[in-house]
Amino acid sequence: MTRSAITIPVSxxxxxxLKHLLTELDIALSSKRTxxxxxxxxxxxxxxxxxxxxxxxxTAQLRxxxxxxxxxxxxxKVVTAQPLENAQQASIQKWFTSNIARRVILSFKTxxxxxxxxxLQTPENRYDxxxxxxxxxGRALLAKRVAA
Amino acid sequence: xxxxxxxGAIGCLVIAGIALILLMRERTWARDKYRKELKMTILQxxxxxxxxxxxxxxxxxxxxxxxxxxxxxxxxxxADAKKQTLANLDESLKENRAALREATEEQVAVIKNLVxxxxxxxxxxxxxxxxxxxxxxxxxxxxxxxxxxxxxxRVKTLVDEQAADLLADYLQSxxxxxxxGDQQEFILARLDAxxxxxxxxxxxx
Lengths: 148, 205
Description:
The complex is a heterodimer. Chain A is an alpha+beta fold. Chain A has 5 helices and 4 strands; from the N terminus they run αααβαβββα. Chain A has 2 domains: about 60 residues, no CATH class; about 70 residues. Helices cover about 50% and strands about 15% of the residues of chain A. In chain A, helix 1 runs antiparallel to helix 3. In chain B, about 95% of the residues lie in helices and about 0% in strands. Chain B is elongated and about 210 Å long.
């Protein structure tokens, strides 16, 4: 099996999943693990690539594929005030898969200072739809109107 | 019988002989004494020193006696001059002391007048300044109160007429994310609203 044939399932779409997969592969390289103890993501990757068991070669190939994916694909950070449920994360992943032709890596973060809303951080732009930003904008606008 | 004249002549011859002998002896004695003194002078330095000492003593005595009147006269002149000088100094000091006292009293009087004048002027200035400050504070407080009233009235007007709608809009749109049930819709709605921009940035390899 050549390196180019290794693919990472689309279901592994978040940066956290990919980093966890890298960690798991690093551990697998250092110690043999049975297929049962592997995570669901790693099992899905093995299944997608038709790999029955982790060998040193397949592990290295998988690790290289994951590293390339992280290095090449754009990362979109989704920052919310409270953590999103898996279903909510999945729906957002689905939106990106449906509306953006290219595969992107999502990274879900939480920041309680946002109060509510969301911040989308792309490699080149920042879309701030948080309540904190709304309050700041409203406060500035009100001050501008008052000063007029 | 001897002739009286003959005896007289003999007697004169005898006396003349005796006198001659005495003169010759005297001459010899004087010559010996001279030689003796000359010998002592030449051969005895102590004698010379004693002579010199005696001579100096005599000279000193003579000089002292000679300058005694002069010394006395000079002392009297110096005493008179000193007495006169002291008298002049006393008189000058009296005059200067009086002039100094007079000048000091005049100066003190002038300073007293100046201080009294300055104190009065300073007190007047302080009163004026204090009054100006109080007036300024009152004006400042009045202006500030008026400005505050105007600002509050303007804020109230703006909030009532214009800002209320604005605040309601952004609060409503932002508060949608507070409800967990609406958070997903909120995020998806924002993604849809910015779909073109996201596609433009992320959709191209």
